[in-house]
Amino acid sequence: MDEPIYLNHAGTSWPTPTCVSDAVVDAMRSHPAEWPSRFERAHAAVCRFFGVADSEQLLLTPGCTSSLVTAIASVDLPAGSRVLTSCWEHHAVYGPLQKLTEKGVAVDVVPASDESPMDLDALEQSLAAGEVGLVAVTAACNVTGDLLPIEAIIELAHRYDAMVLIDAAQIVGWVDLQLDELGADMVAFGGHKGLQAPWGIGGLYVAASARLKCATAQCSIIGRSIPDKNAGASGQQWGSRPGYCDVGSVDQFSLAGLAASLDRLGDTTRLHDLEVAREQARRLRETLSRNERVTLFGIEDGDRRLPTIAFAVADETSDQSAERLRQHGLIVGSGLQCSPVSHEALRTSETGLVRISAAVRQPESEIVIANERLAVFCSGSC
Ligand SMILES: Cc1ncc(COP(=O)(O)O)c(C=O)c1O
Known about the structure:
Blueprint: E1 5-6, H1 18-29, H2 35-49, E2 58-61, H3 64-74, E3 82-86, H4 91-101, E4 106-110, H5 120-128, E5 132-138, H6 150-159, E6 163-167, H7 179-182, E7 186-190, E8 202-206, H8 244-247, H9 252-265, H10 271-289, E9 294-297, E10 308-313, H11 318-327, E11 330-331, H12 340-346, E12 354-357, H13 364-379
Parallel strand pairs: 1-11, 3-4, 3-5, 5-6, 6-7
Antiparallel strand pairs: 2-8, 7-8, 9-10, 10-12
Helix pairs in contact: 1-9, 2-9, 3-4, 5-6, 10-13
The protein binds pyridoxal-5'-phosphate (PLP).
Pyridoxal-5'-phosphate (PLP) binds next to helix 3.
């Protein structure tokens, strides 16, 4: 068979761009005496890309899951307080939130409406009911690619004095994220999806507005800017925000790869790449829609979705469809995509969904071939 085409970039990107793998090898071969300055330069590059003026506000982590776990553990949520979330969360958000319930924190899911993956009226009502310490939401559903209205969510949550944590795993690389301007209190992301960086590197942005207790800190070393009010009963001071004590050493070889991948994407807006990919996704979706055995999921309007396509084929599981697609030379995602709650909301828990997701700047020639293969798949027993 001809080369398979990889279309599971919402899971992880592949292949690694050459400039990225070259940067990793170069970092691995560099002398350890250079590592601190290399770290500073790469960290500064990540901050520049994400519009973060104070590099102390952007903690490098092993990935988005690690960032989310650290963020959620660091929020001061007493028993009786509430956390709001969406019905589209990856288990990297849902899991740590479930743990909070063991400490007497209520986790309430704000439903979707017919118009939006988060019903903003329901969100406001839930905020108005009081005691909400945190709103933790994904910026996009990783199954369907549907975008959540994060700006409106941030604005509403702040009106009711609740902090906001955004899981940006799916949108980085696709959407311009200027974190100082966004207004979220915390934003978590990873490098290995849209940014096409290696595994093992991600980030947690912590705005000055975030009120944290830094619950997971392993050491009591005082960083700069720790106010006296954080002095504990013993008189010992603890950090008011998570630091490298909490997430461990940074994988600086992956960091070198991340810096190279950001350099590759450049300073220009992400909008052009997103528009190209949306047009590519529109064609693939159209091919699928011609077959009556295929049911497409996600918001109809492609401008309100990432270029992700989620679908089911009648009378087979998503794993069976994905296997047949593999035989047609297409590598796609299937199953529950680590987001069982999304599948509950979509009523697809039994079969899962097939997910096709292109890369930022996937060559047009690959999309053309992928579409031909999809057409053959659809014209067969599909
Ligand atoms: C929405 C979402 N959140 C979190 C994660 C976890 O990311 P990481 O693999 O960087 O830990 C993923 C990865 O699938 C995701 O899609």
